[in-house]
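Quick one, T. Sequence first:
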Amino acid sequence: STSPIAATPEVLVKSTPTGFLRVRDKPSLNGSEIARVLPGDKLILLEDLSEWLRVRLADNKEGYVASSYTEKVTDQTPK
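Structure tokens:
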């Protein structure tokens, strides 16, 4: 059996040269922009693909962001 995930993994959007981060429909610079997120936004991490992360946005859209502009949020709060 598998262990339940204790906390939902989140990533924090870091500052970018454009002031926003594009969310794309596939893990490629050729992917279409489906949304924009802002520095400080927290996204739910669904999959880590090394240079790209598959994330869920606040409106439940799913897409891909460049991992270089994100930082994993680690919640060390004891339960």
